Amino acid sequence: MVKENLEEVEQRIAKACKRADRNPKEITLIAVSKTKPVELIREALDYGIMNFGENKVQELMTKQEQLKEKEIQWHMIGHLQTNKVKYIVDNVSLIHSVDSLHLAEQISKEAEKKGVICNILVEVNVSEEETKFGVKVEETLELVTKISKLSHIRVKGLMTIAPFVENFEENRLYFRKLRKLNLDIKSKNIDNVSMDILSMGMTGDYEVAIEEGATMVRVGTGIFGERRL
Ligand SMILES: *Cc1c(COP(=O)(O)O)cnc(C)c1O
């Protein structure tokens, strides 16, 4: 099933790119494997997927251990507690969910201890839903500027989780807003801040996100099926 699902997702990505006059090579598909067993990850690996997203540190580490021989790029996409940073700072390729200076400071400190530079995205709560993590649009530039002064961390772009909606078109304005914010910050040419990644779009709305400029889409259900937890 995973293979068929991946074929469909890739086709839809290609079509969305066509509509937006974009090159599909600009889009990285992150297979969100949270709660799913490593057997399904192996199926996606066999298909050629190399980027996987997890939202819990413990689960990510367990899966990494079980798939040690593979060259997987792991993405931490869930809320991250400062006391868990040390476990993942040198073995994930990107942390998508940085939403405070305190967390960024911890990441930089632990990265320095391990002798690595950690790539991160700043999570923005574009829709301003109270239940969501993420900084406000108006506070993002200030946070990015402060993070840019830390020695062992690089800001690669922005991430958002759009609201859960029946009609994906409703999220278009949020994706557009995040892209604009990304461009605004990029134009400031801040040291250590590249702003070339826009992580937005999930199973219900990744096509719209691509039309609005996403460079990474995070798809779970559409690849691995419904989650029970
Ligand atoms: C679970 C999750 C996803 C994937 O959601 P689906 O709707 O299953 O595609 C994407 N991003 C984040 C941050 C998630 O927690």
What's the β-strand tally? 8
How far apart the termini lie comes to: 20 Å
How would a crystallographer describe the biggest sheet?
8 strands, parallel
Shape: globular
Proportion of residues in helical segments: 40-55%
Number of helices: 9
Strand content: 15-25%
Q: Indicate the low-confidence ranges by residue numbers.
A: none
- The radius of gyration computed from the alpha-carbon positions, rounded to a whole number of angstroms, is 17 Å
List cofactors, ions and other ligands: pyridoxal-5'-phosphate
Average predicted confidence as pLDDT:
97
Spatially, the strands of the biggest sheet line up as 7-6-5-4-3-2-1-8
Q: What order do the helices and strands follow?
A: HEHEHEHEHEHEHEHEH
SS content category: alpha/beta
Write a short abstract of this structure:
This protein has helices at 2-19, 38-47, 57-66, 85-88, 101-114, 137-147, 172-186, 206-211, 221-224, and strands spanning 28-32, 51-54, 73-76, 94-98, 118-123, 153-159, 193-199, 216-219. The chain is α/β, with parallel strands linked by helices and 229 residues long.
